[in-house]
Specification:
alpha/beta; Rossmann fold; 2 domains; 15 helices; 54% helix
Length: 330
């Protein structure tokens, strides 16, 4: 995820902030789990709520020097843990959690509260998850946790039960586009509309797609579903869209699953998706559905998952897996 997507204002999440402020005083819960799909603003929201806490719930927290330090991740009272680029598995390791445990002495240089943000808790390894559980069993006074989660299925039930959950729903298109404009996107309105639809109204994903110039690549993918001779070049481009293999795997998965899920919905009722289709997706969906019903497409998604898992686990070539997968549609 694009690490530059940090801004103090949030759009479309006011109801979550109100819920947090109401419950943090009435329940005095120190462990908060932010749950929602990738790119909807969980990390931005966690930074904002962290600033509110570290400023001792002050009314003037937004304009304080502490808040500027927090958003720049330069404050000693904020501890931020996320997957590291050097870790090819894309997970948060036990070593990272153990370093947090050993270095975090539960003391600060002032009387302010302290906050730990675990970005992508669902990406902890099983051993890291167990270490995290020990830390959460009896959190010291004045220490708060924000656990950012994309998928609950990978989070221990014992951690879930200790957390106050904040559910973050998908934004609407207007809010997504407004966030893109606030992040200085120079695209015209038509392009912003396409990117918002492609990202499924997730501004974090939209900004990442812009940084990868991914809309052109998506158009090439659509053409590869229609013309077999486009597959080889497209496979290479998609597998090398960035220097980071995990980012390339994510982009391939995101694009392909978008089309397959749209295909399932389209086969059920075209009206479910027609408002959010872009480029020549209608033609591609008709082609996909010509030889596949919704049950077939569910099996195709399972096949895609298996192929991408092989790339991650056994370091197989992403380009070859994409090439073979796309050829199944011709």
């Amino acid at each position: 995820m694009n690490e530059n997507i940090i801004f103090k204002k949030v759009i479309g999440l006011d109801h979550v902030i109100i819920d947090f402020k109401k419950n943090i005083f009435s329940r005095n819960n120190q462990i908060w789990m932010l749950i929602g799909k990738r790119g909807v603003g969980k990390r931005t929201l966690s930074m904002r709520l962290s600033a509110y806490i570290i400023n001792n719930f002050s009314d003037g927290w937004e304009s304080s020097q502490l808040t500027n330090e927090i958003f720049n991740k330069e404050n000693d009272n904020l501890f931020y843990i996320a997957p590291i680029d050097e870790n090819k598995s894309g997970q948060i390791t036990k070593v990272q959690i153990d370093v947090l445990l050993s270095n975090f002495k539960f003391f600060s240089n002032n009387f302010n509260k302290r906050v730990v943000i675990i970005d992508k808790l669902n990406l902890l390894t099983s051993s890291a998850m167990n270490s995290m559980l020990k830390m959460l069993e009896e959190p010291p006074n004045g220490l708060y946790f924000f656990l950012i989660v994309d998928e609950l299925k990978n989070v221990l039930n014992t951690i879930q039960s200790r957390s106050q959950k904040l559910l973050i729903n998908k934004l609407n298109k207007e809010d997504c586009i407004e966030i893109l404009k606030q992040n200085n996107c120079k695209e015209n309105d038509d392009k912003l509309n396409e990117i918002a639809n492609l990202s499924d109204f997730s501004p974090g994903i939209a900004l990442e797609l812009i940084s990868l110039s991914a809309t052109n690549l998506y158009q090439e993918l659509l053409n590869a579903f229609l013309k077999k001779n486009k597959i080889q070049v497209l496979s290479k481009k998609l597998a090398t869209s960035s220097k980071n293999l995990l980012s390339n795997i994510w982009l391939a998965e995101f694009f392909l699953k978008r089309l397959l899920i749209l295909g399932i919905k389209y086969s059920i009722d075209q009206r479910l998706v027609e408002k959010n289709l872009i480029f020549n997706e209608v033609e591609v969906l008709k082609t996909i559905n010509k030889n596949n019903d919704k049950n077939d497409l569910l099996e195709v998604i399972d096949n895609l998952n298996s192929r991408l898992d092989r790339v991650k686990k056994y370091n197989l070539g992403l380009e070859l897996e994409i090439f073979q997968f796309l050829n199944k549609f011709h």
